Amino acid sequence: MLSATAPCGDGGMNDDLDNLTAAELRGEVARLRAGIRQHRDSTGHDLCWHHPDLWGLLPEPADPHVAVPEWSDFLRGCVRYRESLDQQLPSAANHARVRLLTGESSPTDPSTRNHVLLHVTKAEADTLAI
């Protein structure tokens, strides 16, 4: 188990922790846990977005010039991510079905039209030219 003073091979990125009191360390842990929980509890496409709020929990600034993959590579990565969820969480609820069942969105209600998610089966996704 690492302590605030144990070397952790981070090149000094956590040296700021050495000067914190126990109460300050507990506060930092609580703040980081809240950020991790917020990300963990994201659903649907919120899991795939750029996460500057999560990265902002770190003391060092994030590079504002993020490199993004080409569209075809990006979409292939999305398909691989979704396929990995099918393998790791085969009984997970389908987000589109959950939204429709709860009445959160409806394909026939114009006021919620923008909230309807595209849902394709794995077989349909396999036929996409991406």
Task: Give a brief description.
The chain is an all-alpha fold. The chain folds into 2 domains: 1-62, no CATH class; 68-130, no CATH class. It is built from 5 helices and no strands.
Structure notes:
- The chain is mainly α and 130 residues long.
- It has 2 domains: 1-62, no CATH class; 68-130, no CATH class.
- It is built from 5 helices and no strands.
- The longest helix has 19 residues, at 22-40.
- The chain is extended and about 55 Å long.
- Residues 1-6 and 110-118 have low confidence and may be disordered.
Secondary structure tally: strands:
0
Going by helix content, strand content and strand pairing, the class is: mainly alpha
Q: What is the gyration radius calculated from CA atoms?
A: 20 Å
Helix count from the secondary structure assignment: 5
Average pLDDT confidence is 74
Write the layout of secondary structure elements.
Layout: H1 22-40, H2 52-55, H3 71-88, H4 95-102, H5 122-126
Keywords:
130 residues, disordered N terminus, mainly alpha, extended
